[in-house]
Amino acid sequence: MDDLKEATRRKLSFVQTLKAVFWSFFGVRKGRDHDRDMAQLNPVHLIVAGLIGGILFVVALVLLAKLAIRLAT
Q: Where are the bilayer-spanning segments (predicted)?
């Protein structure tokens, strides 16, 4: 339980977490940056940022599919 409390007090802000998640979606994180992020990211921020990133990705795919269908007809 103490490990979880300690992890939620980590240093990186939510904006920095969003940036790390954004780059992770593209798979272009450097090993050094990944290791640093794993030591400093707040797990709660990481979960929320991952959900936001996933939702935005799905919405972008749906909009892209609708656009492709509209242009094809």
A: 12-28, 48-69
